[in-house]
Amino acid sequence: MQNGILPLWKEKGMTSHDCVFKLRKILKMKRIGHTGTLDPSVEGVLPICLGESTKVAEYLTNAGKIYEAEVTIGASTTTEDADGDVVESNDSHKHFTPQDILSALTALTGTIEQTPPMYSAVKVNGKKLYEYARAGVSVERPTRQVKIYELTLLSEEDSYSGKHVSFRIRVSCSKGTYIRTLAVQIGEKLGYPAHMSNLVRTNSGTFTATDCLTLKQVQDLVDNELLTDKLYDLDYAMQDMPKFEVPSNLEKAIKNGQVLDAIEALNDHQRIVYTVDAQAVAVYIKHPSKEGKMKPEKMFNRLGKEGDAK
C-alpha cells in the first residue's frame, strides 16, 4: 500500500470526491483522502493523502491557499459563480479605474466576515446548504470570519468599461474562504451585482502547480512503478511545527500515547512533533483539562515494540 502525500492537479468537471474515487481504482487502495473541496468548475492544486498520511490531512486542509480568479461585475447568480442562474442583472454602462478596483480590494483585505453561499457544503442542522437550496428551502446561514492575507489585481488595463466588466485577481487566504462570495463582496464595494466567472487554485499550503500530477500522469507512474518517488512524506504536512527527538527515557511512554508533562514549547505553539531518526512519530498538544500536561493528537506507526524505531 502506498503511503505519502500526492499533490494532484484537479481538472475541471470533477468533484474532489471524484478524484479520490479514481485514485482508489488506480492505486487499488481505499485509504485515501483529499484536503479541501474544490467545486467541479474549478481546477487546481489538491493535495491527496494516501495510507498513513490521511492522519495529517487536517493539517494540510488548514493551510493557507492561493487562488487566481476572474470577477465579473454586472450580474449576480444563485451559486455566486458562472454555473448559477442569474438573480440580478445591471446592464448599465460601467466605468472603473484601476484605483477603483484596488480600493475595493484593499477594503476586503484582512479579517472579513463572509456568509457562505446557499450552494455550498457548509452544514446547518446536520444538512448541507446545497441540499436545502436544491429543495427550495431557505435557512439562516452562519456568518464567519476569514482572513484575506493579500488581494492583488492581476489585470493591467488602463480602465475597465462596459455593461459587464471582468478582471482577474490573486487571492491569498485562510481555510474556509469562499472566493465566489468574495467576488460578490467586491461587486458590493463597487456598487453592482457580481459573480466569480473563473477560478484556479494555484497553491495549497506549500504545494504549487509545478508540484502537481494529473490523474493520467499518476496512472502512467503506477504502470511503471515510479509513483513512490513522486510522493511527499507525511512529515511534509508538519514542517512548520517544532520538532523534538524522542528522549530515550520517553520512548515507551510516547509509543503508548501516554499523557506527559507539557514542555515549554507548547506555550508558544499549538502543536509539537516528536521524532525518531528525524521522522515524526507523534504530535502532542496541551491537555484540555489537565493543567501542565500534554496529550497526543496524532500517532504514527513508526515505533515498533518497546518504542524501537521501524
Automatic annotation (TrEMBL):
UniProt record, GO biological process: mRNA pseudouridine synthesis; tRNA pseudouridine synthesis
Residue ranges constituting the Pseudouridine synthase II N-terminal domain according to the UniProt record: 24-179
Which CDD domains does its entry note?
PseudoU_synth_EcTruB
User: What Pfam families does the entry give?
Assistant: TruB_C_2, TruB_N
- Reaction equations catalysed: uridine(55) in tRNA = pseudouridine(55) in tRNA
Molecular-function annotations in GO: RNA binding; tRNA pseudouridine(55) synthase activity
Under the heading InterPro entries, the entry gives: PsdUridine_synth_cat_dom_sf, PsdUridine_synth_N, tRNA_psdUridine_synth_TruB, TruB_C
Write out the catalytic residues in the record.
39 (nucleophile)
The keyword NADP is annotated on this UniProt entry: no
User: Cross-referenced Gene3D superfamilies, in alphabetical order?
Assistant: Pseudouridine synthase (3.30.2350.10)
What's this chain's function?
Responsible for synthesis of pseudouridine from uracil-55 in the psi GC loop of transfer RNAs.
**Name recorded for this polypeptide:** tRNA pseudouridine synthase B
